[in-house]
Automatic annotation (TrEMBL):
It catalyses: phosphoenolpyruvate + GTP + H(+) = enolpyruvoyl-2-diphospho-5'-guanosine + diphosphate. NCBIfam families: F420_cofC. Guanylyltransferase that catalyzes the activation of phosphoenolpyruvate (PEP) as enolpyruvoyl-2-diphospho-5'-guanosine, via the condensation of PEP with GTP. It is involved in the biosynthesis of coenzyme F420, a hydride carrier cofactor. This is Phosphoenolpyruvate guanylyltransferase. It comes from Actinoalloteichus fjordicus. Belongs to the CofC family.
Length: 220
């Protein structure tokens, strides 16, 4: 196989995903179907930008959700089923083990699923900066992590969750210093979504939010 990072993108079940964004897709109404469309759109924009980045070999969603899986496969991406016990770091550890079992020299990474403004060149530059070692990119607040990359042939050792930037640094991963705002802009709240829109949203997220604007002019 060729060189490059295999990026795992974890996504939890749609019924519980992106709870802090509920209502963002429909001007505060909180319709679950519209919310699910937004969650999937954030994911597809993230995966599509990641797939276009130099230095990325494969982009693989890790999920148990069948709707997410179908949407990801329809866009030509790959899906890996997560273990039944669930949990973000458990899913990523499982993905890392699976990839290493199939290819002991693989370079594994994890990318958050909510980077709808991600630009392929920001990601490619981050991978260049990472060099060969274990590295991570903090989110724009500096406390969370948007991407973690292992060294080739090594397990990912994910420590995602609140305050993960400090844990990843503490576990020896090098913090990436470049600005790269589109790689740092994960979207958990409506404020984050506004910031991502300022940077430039991907086409899937733009389409979901444009539908919102047609239905409710006040939401735009
Ligand atoms: N596969 C998998 N992914 C998970 C799991 N828990 C969280 N994630 C993903 O990890 C990322 C960060 O998760 P959280 O911040 O806990 O949840 P969120 O859905 O982004 O947002 P909130 O519901 O508002 O907390 C998101 O992409 C989630 O979909 C899990 O159990 N399995
Ligand atoms: C899981 C994390 O973040 P968020 O809750 O912002 O998605 C993280 O930064 O490790």
């Amino acid at each position: 196989m060729g060189t490059g990072v295999d990026l795992l993108v974890p996504v939890k079940m749609l019924h519980s995903a992106k709870s802090r964004l509920l209502g963002a897709a429909d001007g505060g109404v909180g319709d679950r179907a519209r919310h699910a469309q937004l969650v999937v759109a954030l994911l597809l924009d993230t995966m599509s930008a990641a797939r276009g980045a130099d230095g990325v070999r494969r982009v693989i969603a890790v999920t148990s959700d069948l709707v997410v899986s179908a949407a990801v496969l329809a866009e030509g991406h790959t899906v890996l089923a997560e273990p039944p016990e669930g949990g973000l770091n458990t899913a990523l550890r499982h993905g890392s083990e699976q990839l290493l079992a199939a290819d002991s020299s693989v370079r594994v990474g994890a990318l958050q699923a909510d980077l709808p403004a991600l630009r392929s060149d920001d990601l490619a530059e981050a991978l260049v900066e990472a060099g060969a070692g274990r590295a991570f990119c903090a989110d724009r607040q500096g406390t969370g992590t948007t991407m973690l990359i292992a060294a080739s042939g090594s397990p990912l050792r994910p420590e995602f969750g609140v305050g993960s930037a400090a844990r990843h640094a503490g576990s020896g991963a090098a913090p990436l210093a470049g600005r790269r705002p589109t790689l740092r802009c994960d979207v958990d709240t409506e404020d984050d979504l506004r910031e991502a829109a300022r940077l430039g949203l991907g086409e899937h997220t733009r389409a979901v939010l444009a539908a919102r604007c047609h239905r409710d002019r006040h939401a735009c």
